[in-house]
Amino acid sequence: MSLSRWCKNHPFGGACHGIDISEEMMRIGAEKVNDLGLNGRIDFERQDCTATTFAANSFDAATISFGIRNFPDIPAAARELQRILPPLGVLVIAELSSRRTSRYAWVTSSTQGVLSPLIGRFFR
After folding, report:
1. Backbone angles phi, psi at 91, to 5 degrees
2. 117's torsion region: left (phi>0), alpha (psi -120 to 50) or beta?
């Protein structure tokens, strides 16, 4: 289930902001929001995940779905997430990439064909 579909089914009092460095991903997100009638509840802004314009401790939660593998500097993004989330803030990262050099690579390669599609449907 996508965040926008979750928001449609679970009314909330706060704001929801989607950020991405890619204009195309924001266009796709805005299209989903529009199709679900959630304009005004979810907005999108082009930002670099390593240096956002948001104030410190300004979010209750942050999610990253199948994108952290594309971050050019994961440690810098982690520092930024720590900055914008309060000490008890929630961070959810959904990522199913595997490391080919890991001694456990056989586990991910043998299960990814089954688990990835099932988990991916939840975040759609």
Report:
1. -125, 125
2. alpha
3-state class (DSSP) for residue 16:
strand
CA pair distance 48, 25, nearest whole angstrom: 13
Which among 62, 65, 74, 67 is positioned nearest to 21, based on CA atoms?
67
Q: Tell me the per-residue pLDDT of 20-53, one tens digit each, with 9 for 90 and over.
A: 999 998 898 889 889 888 888 888 899 999 999 9
Strands 61-65 and 90-94: parallel
Q: What whole-number distance in Å separates Cα of residue 63 and Cα of residue 92?
A: 5
Q: Report whether 5 contacts 123 (CB < 8 A).
A: no
Nearest-angstrom CA–CA distance, 111 and 88:
33
The model's pTM? 0.69
Q: Which two tokens stand for residue 76?
A: 């810098």
95, 68 Cβ separation under 8 angstroms: yes
